[in-house]
Amino acid sequence: MDPLTALGLAANIIQLVDYSTKVVNGAREIYGSASGMTEEHRNLQSIVTQMKELSSKLLPTTGTPRSDEEKAVCRVAAECNIISDQIIELLGKIKPKNSKSKHQVALAVVKNKFREKERSELEKRLVNCRSQLELHLNVLTSSDTKARLKALVSTSDGAGVKLGQLQTHIEALQKGVTVTSISPKVQTQLQELLDFSEDACQTIVQQRILNSLAFEGMHGRFEAVDDAHYKTVEWIFEPAGGGDFESAESDKINEDSDSDEGDDLRRSSSELFKHWLSLGRDIFHVSGKLGSGKSTLMKFLCEHDRTREGLQQWAGDRKLIFASFFFWKPGTLLQKSLSGLYRSLLHDVLKSCPELIPMLLPDQRNEAKSMPWQVQTQLQLGTKDIKAAFSRLRENQNLYEQHCFCYFIDGLDEYEETRSEDYTEIVRILSDWTKESRGNVKICVSSREYNVFLNAFSSARRIRLQDLTRRDMERYVREKLQTDESEHSKTLIQAIVDKADGIFLWVALVVKTLRDRLEAGHELIALKSELDSLPDELEGLFIHLLRSLDKSSRKRTYHLFAMTTKGNTRATGYLSPLACSFLENYYENKAFAMIPDFPYYNMEAATRNERAVLAYKSINGYCRGLLEFKRNDPDDETPRLTFIHRSVPEFLSTTNIKDDMNLFLKDFIAVEAISQLLLAEIRSAAPRSIQRGEMSTTMYRIVKLRFDSKIERHPFLFLEYLSSVITLHEVPEDPEALRFPGWLRHDSTWSWEIGSSSERPDGDFSFRYITSPLYASAARGDIEYVIWKMKHDKNTLGSDDKIAVLLCFIYHGLLLCDSPSFVSKSFEPLDLLLQRGLSPQAMIHNSCSTNNLTAQEEMTFWVHLILNSLQFQLYNIESEQRRAFCKTLETFFQYGADPRLAFLIHEGANKGNRIHAEYLGRRLNGKNIKNELNGNFRIHKDSYDFIAQKRGKVSLRELIEFWDFENQAAILQLLDRNLQELERESEGESRITMIEETVTSEVLGNQAELTNEFLLESDLKKEEEIPMALLSKSKVFGAWLKAVPWSHAVVFVLAIVVAILIACLLRTFNGG
């Protein structure tokens, strides 16, 4: 075989191996994909779908286009629509019907290869069509803009002078000077406008302070408490006369001395409480057994007008400030801690009395005031700040001259004790509040009958709820069972109330059990024996109810308990009745919601409602009333599954019940079940029917659960599938949703919002919910998924805006998450961006940030990192953020980061660990231009104090030396290297500028010289002109040699020599 033939054969073999490799990789990717498509096809489908939606919006719905430009836009948009449909149809033909069938996957790969040319041509046509569409839109927009500008110019003559005069008048009015050149009426209107502007600024500052105090679930427990049953607790405000103290119907039931004694006790308790409201002081204690209705009564009192009326009598002419807090032991840390109590009460106090903000939070108020009004960011208030503010509130005696305070605090026994702050400590704190105020602060508390509370609070200001609820229980039982006036009914009601011993929850559960018996056909007389078999205590009743279930029902109940426990951190649940209706499907297939042929896709509304009602009834039956569906708030249309009372999760945590539950939970993973049920609920809805806010909430709940449980692993199949489902089912977002984002916020409804810098007509900012699992994972700290996504999905980093938003969420997660495993990996995405070719000097829009980055100039990727990282605790050698950041800092310098940054504290600037920054990153004619970032940036106290010691200004190098990183020597060496390179670049730019000026001067001089010689010696011969031209060129070349460094000149000469040698060799080779 001759050499050329062998070479051709080898090339063919290589080509075949390459083709086979691509086929196998494509088949493997499709087989492992939840959507049945390759990553390339998924991205293409997403882009084409968006293009189709955009072009459809450009087509006229009614009428015909008027101008030629509009007709051209419509014509091109229609063509885009057609091409998009062709591409989507082609992708549908290529896609296998069943991605788990190896035969169909192989067939899909072959189809893809045969259709590759057709797909490529369609893509090219779509790109060309899009370019034409952009051109026509630009022309159309330009024409409209020109017309508007022409109209504007025609009306703007003399406006500049008038505006200048108006500005002068406004400044004079602000100083209180009367302006004689404008009428008194106009002066009054302008003054009112200025006052309105000041009021608006104050409102913004106040809202920022309140937002910084609020926390997730702050009023969650209060909202979760059931409203009082009809008239069951109204006795607390009944008149002393007793004429209508109880209904006549109730009196028929109890005509013995016990009833009279109970009425007297309720009467005296009512008088005691009302007297404390209007005239009393110190602490009023509502005590009671578990489940006796303490929280229900406290919520009733907080909402009732009679409470405020009585307190207003006590307040007199002073301003009454009322606040409440409900402890919640199964909830978040702030819901069961002193810190949460301080935050919540302080929030409610300042909301009622915002004029106290400058006194209680002066530094934070100045910090909020110093921020530009258009920057919507949340202040960071630490526990020390909150305690200091509350101390000012308690200790300022002058405050009580015009104000008085009343706090209602529910569930002291729900407070979670610590080593340093136990029940005794919280009792001491509450007592000190009332004593230090000298009668200007009083508190109503509720708790179980623990000795620490009974000993600390006066029995003269206490009511025992279980002694006062008999009449309420009788009314509740009678109305729920709908009994008649027979003796059997009266006897049954008496027996239920007697056995309850004041525990209202026991009554509610027993009544539900008896109602189920009545609906099953049992006679009322037979219920007495059923009642006798029930245990007296709550825990015994819980055990009895669970043991009454058959094995299958108990398994489902325990599974629902496990899922409710996972999602019950805010006194509200995750699962709706519709989601619970898919539980049987989950038992059949643990990934049923992810199968391509999902049988419940796009269900009709009537069918969805039927399933929800059926699930509601079945769960209500076999859970025996221990779980219920409850709305999180009055505006929530969908009820969620939650425990009927906080005592239920306490009961489930006991050893015996946990052991029994574990027998049924061996192969059951609650988080996986919740994820599948919620995903099924999404897929069962009609496409584009789920609002973005609701989708954002559901998405974040799933991501949070999976992140906290650490069950999401490579290759992240569930999150990837969730992302694709959300894209198909959510309401489409504005194409500008991620363009120039303004700020990030996490609201109390479990959703993320990102603000746009494009203001609305009313002057406010518009906000869009974030529905991407990628961004939620970054904010939660699932960096492994973020890195995997960056490596496998090109669309993740498809634009500068997407990069900016992703960076914002990563920095946000860094600030909130202190897990060493998270922090150690949190900077890896930044390193990956550098490896993918993103220069440290690449421009990243600055305003999407966690650190009030409000500069008018856009900032580089590098500056974005530095200004966000200033908040980290970089000086403390124990800080995980320090260890991770110093490595990334070295990497940025390796890639050429510009170290010419300085940080300064402006004179007279507000406190609060905030600084300004400036950088020398741009040049013009070889000169540095100092760019100061317009705004102030939060910085950690350690670094702030160092800058203050250095007279308020330091360079980045000085700051790095202060941080004293372990790799400081390497960082400073790279920093100096980058500075030297920048100086050489600066020198080169200066020389190039000098060359340009010299060449220009020489050329102009030579042109003048040649012109003069031509006029004076027009009869010179042509051959005599050539040396003169060469002479002028030689002068220019000489000037260039003088300006260029010798190192550059040597390289230039060597290049010419090499070029000549190569030419000679080629000539010799051709000649041979």
Overview of this protein structure:
This protein has about 1050 residues and is an alpha/beta fold. Helices cover about 60% and strands about 10% of the residues. The chain contains 44 helices and 17 strands. The longest helix is centred in the C-terminal third of the chain and has 49 residues, at about 970-1015. The protein is globular, with a radius of gyration of 38 Å. The chain starts with a helix and ends with a helix. About 35% of the residues are buried.
The proportion of residues in beta strands is 5-15%
How is the quaternary structure best described? single chain
The proportion of residues forming helix, as a percent range, comes to 55-70%
Helix- and strand-based class?
alpha/beta
**Tally of DSSP helical segments:** 44
Low-confidence parts, pLDDT < 50 over ≥5 residues?
239-257, 739-743, 755-765, 846-856, 922-932, 1010-1051
Task: Strand order, main sheet: write it out.
Answer: 2-3-4-1-5
Number of strands: 17
Average pLDDT over all residues: 75
Alpha carbon gap, first and last residue = 27 Å
Radius of gyration: 38 Å
